[in-house]
Amino acid sequence: MLACARRPDGTLVVQQLTDDGDRVGAPHDLDQHDLDQLDPAGQRWLWASTGVDYPPLMAAGIRAARCHDVAVVERILLGRAGAFGEPTSPAAVLARAQGRPAPAERVADLDPAPTLFELSGPADQPPDEDPTETLRLAYLDQRARAGRDGALGLLLAAECASALAATEMGAVGLPWRRDIHLAVLAELLGPRPVGGGRPPTLAALADEISQAFGFPVNPDSAVDVRAAFRRVGFDIESTRSWVIKAIDHPAVRPVLAYKELVRLHTANGWAWLEQWVRGNRFHAEYLSGAVVSGRWATRGGGALQIPRVLRQAVVADPGYRLIVADAAQLEPRVLAAISADLVLQAISAEDDLYAGLAADGFGGNRAAAKVAMLGAMYGQTTGEGGRLVSTLRARYPQAMGYVDGAARAGERGEVVHSVLGRACPPPGTSWEAVRIGRQQDATPAERTLADRLAGDRGRFTRNFVVQASAADWAAVWLAGLRTSLTEVAGAELVFFQHDELIVHAPEPVAEPVAGLIEDAADAARRLVFPGSAVQTPVRPVIVDRYADAK
DNA sequence: GCCGGAGGCGCC
DNA sequence: AAAGGGCGCCTCCGGC
Questions:
Q1: What is the tens place of the pLDDT at every residue in A391-436?
Q2: How buried is A305 (Cβ within 10 angstroms: 0-12 exposed, 13-18 middle, 19+ buried)?
Q3: Which reaction does it catalyse (predicted)?
Q4: I want to staple A10 with a disulfide (CB 3.0 to 4.6 A). Which of A26, A120, A325, A522 is the partner?
C-alpha cells in the first residue's frame, strides 16, 4: 500500500506501507521512479480523497488498481455512528480518535489539484511534519472501527473502487456527438435565437396558449398558468403535467407541448452543449456515494438525467461499440433477497419479474403487478397502487413485512440499514414536532403535523432499505467490472446510473466485455446476497448509439 | 438587487 | 393504471 499525501507547498509525498499499516522504508517525494516502479495490477493507494488526490496522478498516466479513500470510508463509518455531515479529512479522523474537536473542512481541500508536479494548495500539516503519518494513523483508526464485519468490508471496498470509477468516468467523458445534438435541437426547437429569447417553436406555442385562453398567459410562470386555468373554470391546485392532462380545454395541448420543449431548451439546449461537451465528450463530475442511500450524484451537467430524446447523441467512436447494460427490475429483486422471501426469490428467476408477479397473483395483469410493487416500495397508500399493495401483502407476507417493518421503524424515529450496513440518517430537527404532536395535550393541528412528518419518515426508511441495498449491489457490480476491464485493452467505463452502465470498447472486444459485465453481476449477487436464491440478471446490449439500447 | 424556497420535471 | 422514494437543475416568485 502506498500512502500518498500533499505537503503544504503542494508537492506529493509517499510512504510505502504494509496492509497492516506498518511503514516500509521512509517517506519521500513522489518522483518518476516511484511511478515507474508501480505495480499496475496490485498497488493500493491510501489517500485523503479520491476526487482530490487521483486526478493529478491520472494526468500523469497513473491508473490506480485499488485505493483506501479516507473520506469515503469515514462517511460510511460516521453514518453508522449516527453522525452525518461531520468532516472526513484524515486530520478530522485523528482528532476524533484522540478526543479533540475535529478541524473544519476547508473548501480548497475538496478541489482537485491541476497537475502532478506543480501542485499548490493547503494540506493538513505544518511543513515540518510528515503528512503520510496522519494518513497512516487515520487508516489504522478506520480499520479498527470497521472491525471484522465482512459485509461492511465489502461495502467499503466497493465504495472506494466506485470513487476511482467516478473520477475516471468524469475524466474520460461520455461520447457525445455535437452534430446530432444540434440536429435534435433544430428539429424540435428551430434555429437558435440570437441574443437569447424563445426559440421559434416555443414562441409559436406561447402564442397558441394565449390564443386558446383568449388572454395573454406566460407559460414560463406556473402562477400565471394556474390562474389562467382557474379563470376558464378549472380549479387546479398545481400545474403539473399529469394534472393538466386531465383537463378538457384547447390550451392543454400547447401547454403540455410547451412544458416538454422548454425543458429540453433550458436543461439540455445550446447553452448546455457549449458548457459541458468538449471534444465530442460530455464531461460531468460524478460523485459516488453522495446520496444518503449510496447512489451517485453529479455536479454540473445533470449527467444522471440525460433525456431519452438525446440518447441518440451518445455514439461510439469509429471502430468502437457501446456495451449498455442495466440490471432488470433490480429493486424488487433486492427486496426479495433482503427480506428472505423465498416465494419472491423464486419468481426472480424469471427474466421479467413483473410478468411473474402478474401470473402469480394479478390474473396476468403485468401493469397492475408493477404498480403494486412500486407502491409497496415507495409507500403508496392512495389510489389504485395503494389498493393493489394489499394483494402483494397477502401473496408475499415476508417481503411486505420487511418494508412495512422498515416503515414502522422510521415512524418511531429509528434508523435503518442497507444489506451491507449503510445507515440512513437519523431524523432531523423536525422530529421535535413529532414528539410534541404525540403528547397527551397536543392540539389537533400538532397531531396532524406529527402524523404527516412521521409518515414522511416512514416512507423514507421503507424506500431506503431497498434503494440503499440496490446501491450496495450496484457498487459491487461496478467495482468488480472495473477490475476485470483492466484486462481488456481500450475498454473504458463511460457511464453509470444507479442500475445501468455503459462501457466504450473496441468492436472486437465488445462481446467479451458483455460477458464480463454479466460475470460481475453474478459475482455481486453472490457477494451481496450470499446463500440467497435471488437472481439479479443484467442485459448487456452492444450498440453504436445509446438510444438503440432499449 | 440578492437570495432562498417553491414549483416543476428530467432520470432511476 | 398513481402522483408514494431518491436526486439535479432551471425558472419564477416573494421576502428582505
A1: 999 999 999 999 999 999 999 999 999 999 999 999 988 899 999 9
A2: exposed
A3: DNA(n) + a 2'-deoxyribonucleoside 5'-triphosphate = DNA(n+1) + diphosphate
A4: A120
Nearest nucleotide to A304 (CA to C1') is B11
Measured CA to C1', the nucleotide nearest A383 is: C2
pLDDT in tens, A284-326: 999 999 999 999 999 989 999 999 999 999 999 999 999 999 9
pLDDT exceeds 50 at position A13? yes
Q: What is the pLDDT of residues A244-290, one digit of tens each?
A: 999 999 999 999 999 999 999 999 999 999 999 999 999 999 999 99
- Length of chain A, please? 550
What residue spans define the domains of chain A?
2-147, 178-273, 290-330+472-549, 337-467
C11 nearest neighbour residue (CA to C1'): A220
Sort A17 into a burial class: Cβ within 10 Å, 0-12 / 13-18 / 19+: buried
3-state DSSP of A133-168:
HHHHHHHHHHHHHHCCCHHHHHHHHHHHHHHHHHHH
Round to a whole number and report the distance in Å from the CA of A44 to the C1' of B2. 48
Taking residues A470-480, report their average pLDDT.
97
Least confident of A133-137, A162-166, A296-300, A338-342: A296-300
Confidence of residue A117 (pLDDT cuts 50, 70, 90): very low
Beta strands per DSSP E along A183-289: 277-278, 281-282, 285-287
Nucleotides of C strand lying within 7 Å of any protein CB atom? 1-14
Instruction: Please tell us whether the domain made up of A290-330+472-549 is placed in CATH 3.40.50.410.
Output: no
* Residue A176 to residue A160: CA distance in whole angstroms: 28
Q: At what angle do helices A366-378 and A353-361 cross, to 10 degrees?
A: 100
Q: Output the pLDDT for position A39.
A: 64
Q: Compute the half-sphere exposure of residue A251: CA atoms within 13 Å on the CB side of its CA.
A: 25
**Grid cell at residue A141:** 483508526
Give which of A205, A215, A290 is closest to A252, Cα–Cα: A205
Nucleotides of B under 7 A from a protein CB: 7-12
Superfamily of domain A178-273: Taq DNA Polymerase; Chain T, domain 4 (1.20.1060.10)
Distance measured from the CA of protein residue A453 to the C1' of nucleotide C2, in angstroms: 21
- The dihedrals phi and psi of A272, each to the nearest 5 degrees, come to -60, -45
Residue A240's nearest nucleotide, by CA–C1', is B8
